[in-house]
Amino acid sequence: MVKIELFEVDHVRVHWILSRSLAVKHNLAHSYCLPRSISDLQQVGDSNTSIEIFSPILSKALDYGPMKGSETLRSNISRCYSTESSIHLPIDNILTTPGASLANFLVLFALLGADDHVIVQYPTYQQLYSIPTSIGVDVSLWKSKKSDDWKLDLDELRRLIRSNTKMIIINNPQNPTGAIISKQTLEGIVRIAREHSITVFSDEVYRPLFHSISPTDPEFPPSILSMGYENTIATSSLSKAYSLAGLRIGWIASHNSEIIDVCVNARSYALITASQVDEYLASFILSPPRALGLIEMNCTLAQRNLSLVQSFIDENSSVCEWVKPVGGPLGFIRFTRSGKPVDDLELCTRLLERRGVLLVPGRKCFGDGVNFSGYVRLGFGGDTNELEAGLKALQGFLQNDYANVPLLTGYD
Question: Which keywords annotate this record (predicted)?
């Protein structure tokens, strides 16, 4: 029997709440941009406001469809990568999936085995290290630190490599910190991977939502697929940066066709193809200039909301701090009292019980207790008015209840 760790983020958001019969008034635990409807997006980037998008799919016979996914959708996905790279990504090197989570699962399940070793950027989305561990892979965590703005140390990467290292796994932009891996660091990762014939797998589900760095900045991070190394893999979806978590479409892309073929085979054991209805709507959303217009809208929203959170942190700098996020609609805030970290799980529990504010406790959902004591993940990609209300409720808690939250002893 495969032993798989409890997926803590979803456990907190679902079972943890239901088991306590607690009402969430202010959800600041989400990690996506403001959800949009298809009607909302009909007019984005299109002057033809009367466009009817559903007619073609209503008359289509719904067979299984192409094995790798809709050709139109894969063409639009390929175009998203080609805007930042002269290296063409053929549509046959793209495989659609129901969401990025399954895309990640397929990559890890299809390419790794019990004799392999992987190096995983940390902190990151739990799936990226728990799935390899569950199938017997030896996992080394490539740890970044807040004191260094969550940057990755390439010398440390070299020290972690073993003779059986099969894959380097990164997440760019990063969940839960909103930090990015700069272009220079990405080039270093690829250079090291190429020296050792190691595959680089990048979860890019928050691309291209870079709200605090310009594309003209020399350190602006391109997709891993633009780095000129065949053994690279990128996954993404419409869930986060594109506001459509309910439209279950993600993808796997690689310049190595053999990697895609292995993932197609693995996917065949779990499902045959993705929903043609979802793929059709995804094709519509990712068509230019609609995709660009949606990202521009979400970057503007993230910038506006980020300023609200930054103001909150500045006003409460005696008890909380963060490294300001650069990409993605989320950040990692550390709460302390008298210089000592508070119990983040107890903080989140009391916040929910007394103020209806839902945050994600970092020590429980992202760490081993030492690295992330006092940390919470906060999502700021939603409605601005709702964010303001949530921050106001959090401010009230800090003024009236925070002094009673226990400290964590034995942690820095």
Answer: Aminotransferase, Pyridoxal phosphate, Transferase
